[in-house]
Write a structure and sequence with these properties.
The protein is 0% helix and 56% strand. The protein is mainly β and 214 residues long. Strands 1, 3, 5, 7, 9, 10, 12, 13, 15, 16, 18, 19, 21 and 22 form a 14-stranded parallel beta sheet that branches. Strands 2-4-6-8-11-14-17-20-23 form a 9-stranded parallel beta sheet, with no helix packed on it. 45% of the residues are buried.
Length: 214
């Protein structure tokens, strides 16, 4: 399925529930897909490219990502999760790179890898975005499983991982390896932000600072 050249690609409202597989959402003026109003969507092997934004998840909605998920080369964010929404990464290989703003934003929302066997080997690549690879304002990025999983944030315009206020990275179970390199600032921690990372943290070759806590 290819959805293209619309004001938005797909818009879900009013508690919609469906699965989207083996599909492309491209060249839409707004978002490739908007998930809102308590909707529940499962994605598997979905590409969102050359849209105003890749994926917007709002209004207490829930998404599950499986297979290969590409949210790249969009004019805004690759993936935005906000408004008390929830994103589960279940063994997905996520590419949120080369966007003109941020790769992944978790704003007042929660993204998690659970400890299911099929969740092992999850990966998130957020490279070469114009601002931050991953932004977490008042949100949580959590690995509640045992991996091995990987997170990459490299060669972004301003930050590898940006926690401006109240953001949390929670990875205490030796499950995820973080690779953060070649950004102006590798990791930025603002007011009330925090991280627990047990399993591998490589912050190197960043231009101004590896870790900046303000």
């Amino acid at each position: 399925l290819t959805v293209q050249h619309g004001p938005n690609g797909i818009v879900s409202r009013g508690g919609a529930a469906f699965e989207l597989r083996d599909s492309s959402l491209q060249n839409n003026a707004g978002a490739g897909i908007q998930v809102g109003d308590g909707s529940t969507i499962e994605f598997e092997n979905v590409t969102m490219r050359h849209n105003g934004a890749g994926m917007d998840v709002l209004g207490g909605s829930t998404v599950m990502l499986k297979g290969t998920i590409v949210a790249s080369n969009n004019a805004g964010n690759g993936i935005f999760i906000g408004g008390g929404s929830f994103m589960e990464i279940r063994g997905a290989a996520i590419q949120a790179s080369n966007n003109q703003f941020n790769g992944l934003v978790i704003d007042g929302a929660h993204a998690v890898v659970f400890g299911f066997p099929e969740s092992k080997g999850s990966s998130l690549v957020a490279n070469d975005n114009a601002n931050a690879g991953i932004g977490i304002p008042n949100g949580v990025l959590e690995d509640a499983g045992f991996g091995p999983n990987t997170v990459s944030a490299m060669r972004n315009g301003s930050f590898g991982i940006f926690l401006p206020v109240g953001g949390t990275i929670d990875s205490p179970f030796n499950g995820t390896q973080f690779n953060i390199s070649d950004n102006p600032i590798g990791m930025y921690f603002g007011l009330g932000s925090k991280a627990i990372i047990h399993g591998g943290l490589f912050v190197q070759n960043n231009k101004t600072a590896g870790v900046l806590a303000d």
